[in-house]
Design goal:
Layout lengths: L2 H10 L3 E8 L6 H15 L2 E8 L3
Parallel strand pairs: 1-2
Length: 57
């Protein structure tokens, strides 16, 4: 692999991000938080997911 193919390979890789949100009794605000996290991913051009950890709410 030479420098050109290394650069091309690096350019084709896309960052993937998991946003982990722990929550406890957050039913009233959870939709807003998820929406803001998804909007961030979209605006930043990052592929990702929002993962909610329900701690008993």
């Amino acid at each position: 692999m030479n420098a050109v193919t290394t650069i091309r390979a690096a350019q084709t890789k896309q960052l993937e991000l998991t946003i982990l949100m722990p929550c406890l009794n957050e039913a009233e605000t959870l939709a807003v938080c998820i929406g803001k996290a998804k909007a961030f991913l979209n605006k930043a051009g990052i592929a990702g997911e929002v993962l909610i950890a329900d701690n008993g709410s």
